[in-house]
Amino acid sequence: GDVIESRTYAFTYVTDLGEEGDISPASNVVDVKADSTVSLTGITEPPAGSFVTKKRIYRSNTGSSDTKFQFVAEIDAATETYTDSIASGDLGETLSTEGFVAPPADMRGLIDLPGGIMAGFTGKTLCFSEPWHPYAWPKKYQLTTNYDIVGLGRIGTVLVVLTSATVYLVQCADPASASMDSFDDIAPCVSKRGIVSSRWGVIYPSTQGLVSVTLSGVNLITRDLFTRREWDKLKPETIHGYIHADKYIGFHHPDSGGKGFIVDPVEPTARLVDISLAAVAGYVRPEDDLCLAV
Predict the structure, then answer these.
(1) What is the DSSP string of 155-183?
(2) Which pTM does this prediction carry?
(3) Using an 8 Å Cβ cutoff, are 18 and 54 in contact?
(4) Can you give the pLDDT at residue 223?
(5) How distant is the alpha carbon of residue 242 from its chain centre?
(6) Is 200 in contact with 156 (CB distance < 8 Å)?
């Protein structure tokens, strides 16, 4: 027929696990008759070692109100050409992975959240994955803090961001609408390994003592257990912590050798237990409810 269509093409990479990434830059716009065939070249091969096995080709399709990229075909990763003869009415699904990029190479502090969301950080940048797509970390979901992030914890769907100065709470039931607020309290986190998430909130070692964060605020739970000088002697930056039987178990490495302590977050002054064990790592095993340290 004589109907002319303005088309542009793009493609995505797909790994051997079916993970589809961000869309490539679009091709030049071409005007063709609706029933014509279009020969595509230069569909670039993926980088070496990327585990990409397929490429998916998309084509722009203009409807009554907007233009979208719709699926044309899937080809092998090594194939760089394709001939498109598909009618506009026979195109497949609309592209849904725009912005699905890999996380920053230096991202760390990975934590899982309800709803299939994961979070991590690099420097002052907080990153979120696409829900149920842990390989995709859209840049549009990133948030920025005023201070370097040390570690993360969570209270339900609320992410607790601990920095070198203040504490942030991020409502992130959906990363597309995540919002971040901070407490006025200056409570620097000094040990990423000391952070634990519990039903009493997120607990971590600060410069002043052991701190708990709830949705209502920041509380110094060891206020009546340690003076600032006594706390400094523990070398809080060396603490690695665990929550077990509703108690915080912390191991540390002061100048006098490795030691530990147990604190009740609810009634910290009830009893402080010293541990002579010099543990360098540990974990809580849920199968038999044991806290194992080595």
Answers:
(1) ETTEEEEEESS-EEEEE-SSGGG-EEEE-
(2) 0.90
(3) no
(4) 93
(5) 22
(6) no
